[in-house]
């Protein structure tokens, strides 16, 4: 039988700013996520050069309440336990620990909240997988410092990381430094907390900010190993194979070049500890001159990651001259692939692409891989009896998990899988509740109505069976020799 390792980490993934709520409770400060409005124009609004980081009466802010995990965490963790989770990916809200981001001492009430959450996970036998920074830079660091363009954020992040490592050593083994760090190349506001104003050199600011984050990640890795050498520190990137639209050599090169900057630029720094040659050429040809401090390159080289984690939602198709229709995607987009169907939000569905990118990443880095995001955002219908028949989600996840198992059969070392939005939450890209990913339905809606009551979708019981059989049920309809 095709199968995964007995100690494979099955679970689900979330982000504090998308489901936690309690945005002004427990001494928490505001984050950039707290001023991002809900609705399909969210990305357009926050990337407008005039975005002012203020709250406005004409907008709604669903992140403020999320699904109120802040007050429902025991109930939710009990549901995760019922599904059989071996691990749960969560993030810590930086502004709950350092409300402004630049304080010298942390907020004890915020630390105590995560004490309770992590202790509950451990008590239920669920391994915490913690992201340190997940698209929620403290607002003060964005408005007073200009986000990650400012070198001082390296110091603030290292201080914040050390507090977490010291507080949760012995309880949290797996850590991720920055969520989808390579997304900064496409969405500097989400990743870098950085507004690009009229007249700004976006490329220069983006890659300078990325350099600061990469140094901060290396210093956090150094700190973790000093505090508790048993901790495992991973990077986290958006991963997507980039296909050429045709066999035209121009398309093939264009896709190859796009894939290197997408999947391997940040990966090479995190894993190999140095900037790759293709990035140096990109910097040179685009007039990008990174400002570095003495010792930066040595720090990157000395403190590389233990494992490579990734989000996978779709592949990307590119051509040198874009005359085809553009396809939507997870932050990045290409041209439409005529061989693929798309989700309700236009994201192309490509299970084989997961097998492709897992093989490419493992061949390049030879480090354990961890799929920490994968899922289908869709409209769910609640039936009269309260059930949700989400066969479309089951089909999507089954096809992707089978592709993952095929990659494992190929020899790829995949140590775990956490489905994105295992419980319904607020979409990062659109700020909507209606774009649902979860196995668990939450009665909360885009107009703000809802009871927050939790209920099990059909996919809940399907995933429960997948975990219980350690993946064997994925192939129950096949004759496997």
From TrEMBL:
Record field: transmembrane: none
PROSITE patterns for the chain: GLYCOSYL_HYDROL_F1_1 (PS00572), GLYCOSYL_HYDROL_F1_2 (PS00653)
Catalytic site positions: 373
Signal sequence extent: none
Pfam families: Glyco_hydro_1
Originating species: Exiguobacterium chiriqhucha RW-2
Gene Ontology terms describing biological process: carbohydrate catabolic process
Any one Gene Ontology cellular component term annotated for this protein: cytosol
GO molecular function terms noted in the UniProt entry: beta-glucosidase activity
InterPro entries per UniProt: GH (IPR017853), GH_1_N_CS (IPR033132), Glyco_hydro_1 (IPR001360), Glyco_hydro_1_AS (IPR018120)
Family: Belongs to the glycosyl hydrolase 1 family.
Keywords: Glycosidase, Hydrolase
Protein name per UniProt: 6-phospho-beta-glucosidase
């Amino acid at each position: 039988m095709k199968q995964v390792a007995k100690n494979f980490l099955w679970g689900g993934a979330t982000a504090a700013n998308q489901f936690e709520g309690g945005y002004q409770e427990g001494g928490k400060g505001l984050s950039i996520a707290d001023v991002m409005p809900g609705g399909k124009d969210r990305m357009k609004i926050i990337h407008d050069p005039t975005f002012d980081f203020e709250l406005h009466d004409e907008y709604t802010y669903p992140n403020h309440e999320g699904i109120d995990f802040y007050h429902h965490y025991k109930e939710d963790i009990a549901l995760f336990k019922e599904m059989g989770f071996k691990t749960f990916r969560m993030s810590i809200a930086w502004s709950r620990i350092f409300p402004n981001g630049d304080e010298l001492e942390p907020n004890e009430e915020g630390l105590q909240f995560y004490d309770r959450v992590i202790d509950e996970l451990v008590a239920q036998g669920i391994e915490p997988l913690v992201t340190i920074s997940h698209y929620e830079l403290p607002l003060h660091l964005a408005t007073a410092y200009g986000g990650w363009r400012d070198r001082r954020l390296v110091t603030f992040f290292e201080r914040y990381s050390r507090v977490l490592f010291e507080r949760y050593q012995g309880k949290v083994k797996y850590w991720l430094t920055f969520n989808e760090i390579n997304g900064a190349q496409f969405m500097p506001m989400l990743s870098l907390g950085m507004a690009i104003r009229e007249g700004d050199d976006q490329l220069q600011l983006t890659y300078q900010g990325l350099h600061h984050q990469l140094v901060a990640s290396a210093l956090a890795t150094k700190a973790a190993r000093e505090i508790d050498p048993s901790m495992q520190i991973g990077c986290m990137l958006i991963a997507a194979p980039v296909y050429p639209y045709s066999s035209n050599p121009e398309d093939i090169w264009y896709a190859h070049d796009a894939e290197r900057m997408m999947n391997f630029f940040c990966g090479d720094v995190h894993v190999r500890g140095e900037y790759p040659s293709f990035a140096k050429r990109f910097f040179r040809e685009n007039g990008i001159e990174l400002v570095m401090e003495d010792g930066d390159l040595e720090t990157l080289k000395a403190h590389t990651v233990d494992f490579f984690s990734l989000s996978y939602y779709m592949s990307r198709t590119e051509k040198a001259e874009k005359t085809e229709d553009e396809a939507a995607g997870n932050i990045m987009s290409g041209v439409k692939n005529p061989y693929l169907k798309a989700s309700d939000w236009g994201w192309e569905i490509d299970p084989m692409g997961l097998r492709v990118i897992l093989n490419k990443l493992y061949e390049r880095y030879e480090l354990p891989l961890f799929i920490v995001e994968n899922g289908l955002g869709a409209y769910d219908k609640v039936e009269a009896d309260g059930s949700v028949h989400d066969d479309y989600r089951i089909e999507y996840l089954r096809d992707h998990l089978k592709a993952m198992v095929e990659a494992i059969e190929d020899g790829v070392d995949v140590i775990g899988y956490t489905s994105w939005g295992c419980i319904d939450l607020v979409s990062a890209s659109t700020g909507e509740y209606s774009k649902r990913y979860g196995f668990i339905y939450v009665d909360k809606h885009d107009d703000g109505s809802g009871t927050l009551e939790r209920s099990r979708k059909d996919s809940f019981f399907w995933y429960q069976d997948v975990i219980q059989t350690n993946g064997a049920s994925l192939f129950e309809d096949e004759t496997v020799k």
